């Protein structure tokens, strides 16, 4: 029996990440004083910088807030002016409606009188068809426009700026009214026009010592009023974009974004630069005319307007913070010295827990990486055997390959679960004689199909292999080779080439052989940075070219640990886009061919088939408690090979009932699964042990379960079981264990 293929490890996975500890010297009194002084100076310096930035930020914030307030006051003044205009028009309209018997001459005098008293260009009556009647008594058709539609159709107030009589800037205000007739005019709206200069007087040019720039613009970006420069009639609609085009706004914002927000009714305050001069700009919606106001002041002017009290408050706060910082520094140093060891332990535990959680997530997501290669061989060979059921020789060859792949798969799973054990150097390597060439041929058979599926050229070479028989752990060595070959296949694109070469090197010891294994591929390669971490647990390169080559991230870490446990070395060379070369060097004791042959006997010559063992178990009865029919069938078949009769129970409750139904001593042994419906194996064992029969405390009960961690073995013993058999079950191991238990050699 080959020990390496049959030993099932039953250790729980414990993923440990060790943080490099830094020795902390205990400085003397002088050193501590220097340390405190340095830290204090640094803290004061940092605090000063933070206060400086805080002062600037607060100053900016208060400056912007102050500018918004002043700008809003301007908008309020405009709105009040517009409100007064509307009130005047409503009063005039009410008077006309009340005295609607007046004739055209009386109407004209009334409108002229009110226009003159209020310094207006004129007051106008507009009928529902868009004709306007003024002080001269004339009636003219108004050009259709969106403003006219709003006034007559949507019944909305209108405030607009334009050119009066093609010469003067004017402000137009109109309000809709309930229709009435006066002097033959069907009145639907009343409007007024007055000089733009009148509205201009509302702008306070002396704000911020005359440094403020105030611009009123309509929704089309046309400025109709500003406090800088002159606006001749021909320039009434001055482009806002032209005036502010040279400014560079913060955060990559452009002027159009700001004006669009204003048109939508949203205000914006932002900082901008024109060369080296910084400005604070507030843009507020001017809803009265569907436009907006731009209020711009140089930064140095507006910041100077911030009260000196702010500076005093910040200085006082800064000094207080410095004192608090100094106190905290001293206290923290004192606490650090007192609790240094405990603090470091807490930090270390936290980092280990976080690292373990990250590793667990990565492990679960990529678990399939390391098991797919042998699983592919198992599935493929099973299908081939089924298709060639009449070809005994072909079927036998498939079964041998399935057996090899199954054992390799089991070894990989055990290695993944035993990662923490490998890191702790608690793994015991097998010492058995094996053929180096045969082991390599087995690996080649497994890898050939995967290479063929990707249309890869796979070449195996043996150079100077003068000593084929060696002593060591063939399963672990095979795992090392398979890990590297599997990565090569996954990371090599179709049409690529993979070469495996074993070279026997000169060895200074006569009873040992020195071997170098070289695996090279023409795959995607690795970056230099990743090569530094490739042998760390759960490490994978996130490069685009390798994003589809995912695994658990344990393969190379296990490889390095196993190589080191064998006293060897492993190194890697790689260039992105060109390929990778792995070199493993090991020195192994030599063996004779006779030792190799004795260690690889066929099953019929092994302990399992020994007549002594069969005779000792023949005729025994076993109760199998197993909820999975296939597992129960396998166990029953293994028992039947040894002459043991069996009876099956599909859950723990049924197992207890069958046991109690049979007479004392009917069953010689019980195989008990753990996870079963109705009643689990632990409870079933406890009930059997407490049944009060003569054989209740003596009948051997063996846990046969996939729960293979160390705590599971401990729980099985505490529940009253005599031994633990981990799945997948090996026939030889099962029979050997049952013999030991029945002979009293194995106790819980």
TrEMBL record:
<feature type="modified residue" description="4-aspartylphosphate">
    <location>
        <position position="673"/>
    </location>
</feature>
<dbReference type="InterPro" id="IPR036097">
    <property type="entry name" value="HisK_dim/P_sf"/>
</dbReference>
<dbReference type="InterPro" id="IPR001789">
    <property type="entry name" value="Sig_transdc_resp-reg_receiver"/>
</dbReference>
<dbReference type="GO" id="GO:0009927">
    <property type="term" value="F:histidine phosphotransfer kinase activity"/>
</dbReference>
<keyword id="KW-0597">Phosphoprotein</keyword>
<dbReference type="InterPro" id="IPR036890">
    <property type="entry name" value="HATPase_C_sf"/>
</dbReference>
<feature type="transmembrane region" description="Helical">
    <location>
        <begin position="33"/>
        <end position="55"/>
    </location>
</feature>
<dbReference type="Pfam" id="PF00512">
    <property type="entry name" value="HisKA"/>
</dbReference>
<feature type="transmembrane region" description="Helical">
    <location>
        <begin position="313"/>
        <end position="333"/>
    </location>
</feature>
<protein>
    <recommendedName>
        <fullName>Circadian input-output histidine kinase CikA</fullName>
        <ecNumber>2.7.13.3</ecNumber>
    </recommendedName>
</protein>
<dbReference type="GO" id="GO:0000155">
    <property type="term" value="F:phosphorelay sensor kinase activity"/>
</dbReference>
<feature type="domain" description="Histidine kinase">
    <location>
        <begin position="366"/>
        <end position="590"/>
    </location>
</feature>
<dbReference type="InterPro" id="IPR004358">
    <property type="entry name" value="Sig_transdc_His_kin-like_C"/>
</dbReference>
<dbReference type="Pfam" id="PF00072">
    <property type="entry name" value="Response_reg"/>
</dbReference>
<keyword id="KW-0418">Kinase</keyword>
<dbReference type="InterPro" id="IPR005467">
    <property type="entry name" value="His_kinase_dom"/>
</dbReference>
<comment type="similarity">
    <text>In the N-terminal section; belongs to the phytochrome family.</text>
</comment>
<feature type="domain" description="Response regulatory">
    <location>
        <begin position="621"/>
        <end position="742"/>
    </location>
</feature>
<dbReference type="InterPro" id="IPR003661">
    <property type="entry name" value="HisK_dim/P_dom"/>
</dbReference>
<dbReference type="GO" id="GO:0005886">
    <property type="term" value="C:plasma membrane"/>
</dbReference>
<dbReference type="InterPro" id="IPR003594">
    <property type="entry name" value="HATPase_dom"/>
</dbReference>
<keyword id="KW-0472">Membrane</keyword>
<keyword id="KW-1133">Transmembrane helix</keyword>
<keyword id="KW-0902">Two-component regulatory system</keyword>
<comment type="function">
    <text>May play the central regulatory role in sporulation. It may be an element of the effector pathway responsible for the activation of sporulation genes in response to nutritional stress. Spo0A may act in concert with spo0H (a sigma factor) to control the expression of some genes that are critical to the sporulation process.</text>
</comment>
<dbReference type="InterPro" id="IPR011006">
    <property type="entry name" value="CheY-like_superfamily"/>
</dbReference>
<keyword id="KW-0808">Transferase</keyword>
<dbReference type="Pfam" id="PF02518">
    <property type="entry name" value="HATPase_c"/>
</dbReference>
<keyword id="KW-0812">Transmembrane</keyword>
